[in-house]
Amino acid sequence: MNFSERHPATQFIFFSASICSVILNRNPFFLCISLVIALVYRIFQLRSIRILKEIFNYILLTGFLTVLIPLVSHNGKTALFFINDNAVTKEAILLGFSTGLEFSAVICWFSCMSRVMSGEKIIYLISGIAPRLAVFISGIMKFVPLCRKQYLNIYRTQKNIYSGYKSLRKKIYIVIRSFSALITWIIESSADSADSMYARGYGLYGRSSFSIYRFRRFDVIILAVIVYLLPFTATSVLYRTAGIVFYPETVIPLSAANILISILWTIIMLIPVVTEICEEYKWKLLRSKI
Amino acid sequence: MEIIKVENLSFAYKGSKTNIIDDISFSVNKGDFLILYGPSGCGKTTLLKLMKKEIAPDGKRKGRIYYKGTDISKLDDRQSASEIGYVMQNPDGQIVTDKVYRELAFGLENLGESDSVIKRKTAEISSVFGINKWFHSDTATLSGGQKQLLNLAAVMIMSPDLLLLDEPVSQLDPFSASAFIEMLVRFNREYGVTVIISEHNLEGIFSYADTIAVLDKTKIRYLGVPRTCCGFFAKEAPIVEGMPIPARIYQRFGIKAACPIDVREARTFIRRYCPNIVRKLDKPVKLNNNSFAVELDDIYFRYDRKSPDIINGLDLKVRKGEIYAVVGGNGCGKTTLLALIAGQLKPYSGNILIGGIRYNAASKIAVIPQNPVTLFTEDNLRDDLVNFAVNCGIQKDIAPSAVNDLCRTLGIVEVLKNHPYDLSGGEIQKAALAKIMISSPDVILLDEPTKGVDAWSKKSFAEILKRLAKEGKAIIIVTHDNEFAAETADTCGLLFDGTIISEDPSGEFYSKNDFYTTVSSRITKGFFENTVTFDEVINLCKENGGVK
């Protein structure tokens, strides 16, 4: 079972934890590892040449910040050279580089997440907390494509009957009229939706919530590990062992606690990639047996 | 045992002094299939909504409705929600959520059923309805027929005892409509669900009903079995017009025998009570030597570079004063063809000539889209039409009277003050015709003009089209409605596989077809030779002495 088929709650907590860990633990080694893992996962997700473009964008972003920050920040002990009498320091370059890594890693994790967490899953998660809001959002998700279609219908029809209109003013006039007709349509059709909702008992006391997702043992394990790690990370952030200090001199925190936490987080972040590889291998094995 | 009982029910909408339904009494037994029949605007929807307390309209009500012996207004909310199901006319509006499975679960969630119960029921209902394949789909991607089936499924999942349906198939094409009706009949026959369905077109549903209630001008005029219904209304045009052709044939024969209610019985009936000495009706050949209004020459079209051709080497020629009907199954590219002629889409190969010259912005073509209400943008019909007339260059002071005159000829003067959304199916088609006539086009394109239109309005609409053709307009109709095409069009073309496969004068077209043809033609196949419309059947029966 791929990670993308896991329970939405697991996926949501996994991605939130991965993103948080990147933001909280700014150890450059850890950031590098995290970015690499996210990229590998992204390769599995995309399986196309598009990934090269994304990698190029991350390199560009990191490079840009590595150059930009030394130009605006002149703190730091070790001056490498001067531009217009302003020192370009080693510390500032390191800060720029690690900020670039951090941004890239966060963006990469977010893009992995958006691929896995569809709107459907997010609505499901919301329905756990606010069922009525979830119905509302789901209704809007249904309505938006219909509105777009209806608008195009109206607009095309209007454009057609006013086909002699060429000036920009008249074209805008058509758009405005189509839009006002669309609003009438929206009101009409939401009246139908409301009737249909109440006809099926919407608003009765004690609404339950149905989902097609199942919570399995593997979900429990992942969640348990993440929950177990949380306090450690929290304390390490609290005692600033995770935070890297750039100025006046760059000190990379390499305490035993930080290394341990980084390793554990790395293992967690590897979960989707490892399951993808195992799946792939299993399939090949099965197919070779046939 | 009666499941619903209506006693002396009268109802008037808020602000209206006249009753929309007046002193109606009837009862429906458990497991019955009742059709509520009547022309548009006779109060069918109001009556149905009054039986469902959650959506009962506001207004002045007299009389009582009992559901299983309890007054409907005192019925428990939960019981009313789950035991009385309601399906509306518009397939889109009543879908609430974005995913099919969520839509199915919606009712049960409202009742607070547990996850395992909902899981089981959604699985059950999807298996019965064959929804499995699109269980995870977005509701917005479904076709009209699928949407309406989903609406039925989403109601059936709460296992109601009583199902109320308000013209559920009027917006569907005939194939989806019969699939829907079959499903409905199955629930009635195999699961004992009581069905009350309102309809203005009885073809295709008549034979399934136990009881038929004819609602006309606020009253129930007839309540009884379908078989005797047609004889009851011997001469009343609007009511008889919507009856199925077998029953109408029987009514014209005017003999004391059992009324046929489907094609099979009608075939036996006509063979038994009418000789066929004259087998062929003498039909005058309509000669049209006008110049071509629309010429399509070897047209190719596809939506994407990589997608397959929708229109594939199509030739089509329509003369001035000709009504041409393009018929064909679902998704065969009929609407695409119209958009190409109207210049909304461009073919990647081939020529389209309008009045002998290549299509350009000055070509006088008007389209009535499938959804004619999109033509209107004002709050009432009169303002909209007058506004448009002024925009088309008619002087401000004479525009209102010009609009009035035009609407009088179309028979929609009474509804000019109404909001376009409040018009019935027939009225909105005529209003749409009024709007496009203002710009005096040479070519008129109509996309499914009979959708949601009752039989009576269909007939008067056909007459208007014929009149326009006589004035020299070229009219192209795209339709699923074989009956309408046979009666209205001069020429019919079957669109299949991206091209016009066969093209003939409409009479010949339908008598040559064995399967894709009209009800009249199916009834008389092998008995008469060229009768494709109801009137032709009756005329030939007259010649043979079957009908006096």
Q: How are the SSEs placed, and which strands pair?
A:
The complex is a heterodimer of chains A (290) and B (548).
Chain A: H1 8-24, H2 28-46, H3 50-72, E1 79-83, E2 86-89, H4 90-116, H5 119-129, H6 131-161, H7 168-199, H8 217-238, H9 256-269, H10 271-289
Antiparallel strand pairs in A: 1-2
Chain B: E1 2-13, E2 21-29, E3 33-37, H1 44-50, E4 59-67, E5 70-71, H2 77-83, E6 84-87, H3 100-111, H4 115-129, H5 144-156, E7 162-166, H6 174-191, E8 194-199, E9 211-216, E10 219-224, H7 226-232, H8 237-241, H9 245-253, H10 263-273, E11 292-301, E12 311-319, E13 323-327, H11 334-341, E14 349-354, E15 357-358, E16 365-368, H12 381-391, H13 399-410, H14 425-438, E17 443-447, H15 455-470, E18 474-479, H16 482-488, E19 491-496, E20 499-505, H17 506-512, H18 519-524, H19 534-543
Parallel strand pairs in B: 3-8, 3-9, 6-7, 7-8, 13-18, 13-19, 16-17, 17-18
Antiparallel strand pairs in B: 1-2, 1-4, 4-5, 9-10, 11-12, 11-14, 14-15, 19-20
Helix pairs in contact in B: 3-4, 3-5, 5-6, 9-10, 12-13, 12-14, 13-14
Percent of residues in helices of chain B? 25-40%
- What is the radius of gyration of chain A? 26 Å
Query: Major β-sheet of chain A, in short?
Result: 2 strands, antiparallel
Taking the alpha carbons of the first and last residues of chain A, their distance comes to 20 Å
The portion of residues forming beta strands of chain B comes to 15-25%
